[in-house]
UniProtKB/TrEMBL annotation:
<feature type="coiled-coil region">
    <location>
        <begin position="3"/>
        <end position="64"/>
    </location>
</feature>
<protein>
    <submittedName>
        <fullName>UTRO protein</fullName>
    </submittedName>
</protein>
<dbReference type="InterPro" id="IPR018159">
    <property type="entry name" value="Spectrin/alpha-actinin"/>
</dbReference>
<dbReference type="InterPro" id="IPR002017">
    <property type="entry name" value="Spectrin_repeat"/>
</dbReference>
<keyword id="KW-0175">Coiled coil</keyword>
<dbReference type="Pfam" id="PF00435">
    <property type="entry name" value="Spectrin"/>
</dbReference>
Length: 254
């Protein structure tokens, strides 16, 4: 009777493993939204826990069959053969479910990482847009233009590492058919805004550089003129002091 019960237990265990394989491993999942992906991750975590919890039952079956084999070798040998098949199938099921769970967790992590880098670069684009707008109505002063140019250039020196991460993470998920529509839309919007703002910023940078160069040249010309006028003023003052008649002066002094 004990052998019959153990045989029944082995059959039930095999049936459960077949159902678990159909439910967790043979479904054709499509992850078209973050919610679907997150639900799939949670489901595979539960599946992994469920399968691992059966390890106790498998061990009890194994111990009982070994014990029976010592008492009734003939019955025990037949059950041992069936047990080996169940043990192999159970280990295979554990490995496959753990592997799929790990893969889905990595995919979810990839998605969260992509969102993180998009947030960072969006914050940078917002800052760049603000700096560009600040250059639109500057006072006509050399210091103000110079400060605005330096401020804009400091933002434009932003490294490209984050954008590389965005491109690679997005392409990895899209290639796997994971959230491809959503990611394509996000990347298209981000890249369009990046191109528009970066071109506008570089154009404004060139304008400010030209404006700054013109102001410096004008400032230098005024300085030279001021020095020349100062020299002339001192010369005329000396003429007046010495009471020199105007017709005795050089033509330019007259």
């Amino acid at each position: 009777e004990k052998a019959v019960n153990l045989k029944k237990d082995l059959a039930e265990m095999q049936e459960w493993m077949t159902q678990a394989e159909e439910e967790y491993l043979e479904k054709d999942f499509e992850y078209k939204s973050p919610e679907e992906l997150e639900n799939a991750v949670e489901e595979m975590k539960r599946a992994k826990e469920d399968v691992l919890q059966k390890e106790v039952r498998v061990k009890i079956l194994k111990d009982n069959i070994k014990m029976l084999a010592t008492k009734v070798p003939s019955s025990g040998q037949d059950l041992a053969t069936e047990l080996n098949v169940v043990l192999e199938n159970y280990q295979l099921l554990c490995n496959r479910i753990q592997g799929k769970c790990h893969t889905l967790e990595e995919v979810w992590s990839c998605w969260i990482e992509l969102l993180h880098y998009l947030d960072l670069e969006t914050a940078w684009l917002n800052n760049l847009e603000e700096r560009v707008q600040m250059t639109g109505n500057l006072p006509d002063k050399l210091d103000a233009v110079n400060d605005a140019l330096e401020s804009l250039e400091s933002v434009l020196r932003h490294p490209a590492d984050n954008r590389t991460q965005i491109r690679e993470l997005g392409q990895t998920l899209i290639d796997g058919g994971i959230l491809d529509d959503i990611i394509s839309e996000k990347l298209e919007a981000f890249n369009a805004r990046y191109e528009e703002l970066s071109h506008l910023a570089v154009s404004r940078q060139i304008t400010l550089e030209q404006q700054l160069q013109t102001m410096r040249e004008t400032d230098h010309m005024l300085q030279v003129l001021q020095e020349s006028l100062g020299d002339l003023d001192r010369q005329l003052t000396s003429y007046l002091t010495d009471r020199i008649d105007a017709f005795q002066m050089p033509q330019e002094a007259q």
